[in-house]
Amino acid sequence: MEEPEKLDRIVDARMKLKARFEEKIKHTPSVSDNNPQGSGPPNRHGMPTTPVGQILTTKWPILDLGHHPTVTADRWRLAVDGAVEHPVRLTWDEFMKLPQTNDVSDFHCVTTWSKLDMQWKGVRLMDLAALVHPKENATHVLCYGYDTYTTNLSLEEALKPDVLLVHTFEGKPLQKEHGGPVRMITPQLYAWKGAKWIKRIEFLTANKPGFWEERGYSNTAYPWRNDRYS
Ligand SMILES: Nc1nc2c(c(=O)[nH]1)N[C@H]1C(S)=C(S)[C@@H](COP(=O)(O)O)O[C@H]1N2
Ligand SMILES: [Mo]
Asked: Cα(136) to centroid of ligand 2, in Å?
């Protein structure tokens, strides 16, 4: 298919998805809460800069299951499948040809550190969704890492414009320790919702807990509600 046609198709599908999820996104707690818990001036989505119980750090700690899989760009693949019309399995080159987004956002880890103003470049999950066309009854995604990690999100969270699959941090390739070559980020939820070394995004028609969610962590993970455990 011609590249411009492909882009038109993504844009069209994206507008439809946006219309379908716009209202739901507006009502998610990290945008609409009128009594959010935290301190400091409003951030980019209107919540206090520092969520309740968090401490700011300038360092970037490393948190994971302890195994850092080596996935070079030429061997990396991303499957986007499940309850979708057009499942895909992308190579690095195909992924890099998708619309690229630069963004600056904050990172809130459930172990109580937050790091502000992180500069990212990557592909919006929304743009990947537009490529595969989620079925009408899709409600959630389950994301998989190459280290066997999994984590779940509702579509109204996953389709927010700041949810990215990032390959670049502060102008440099994302380090392996932080999930390179590609990881997901979820600036409006605790950071465990963003899979490092991401390899698969499965669209689901019902919620399914991931690694930490099965071990007592919250399905929803709202930092401004101190929503850490279920
Ligand atoms: N694949 C994978 N992704 C993961 C994890 C993991 O163990 N494996 N840990 C999560 C947790 S608990 C956090 S807080 C963040 C930490 O990201 P960082 O190590 O880059 O700070 O990654 C999340 N994504
Ligand atoms: Mo975490």
From this structure: 32
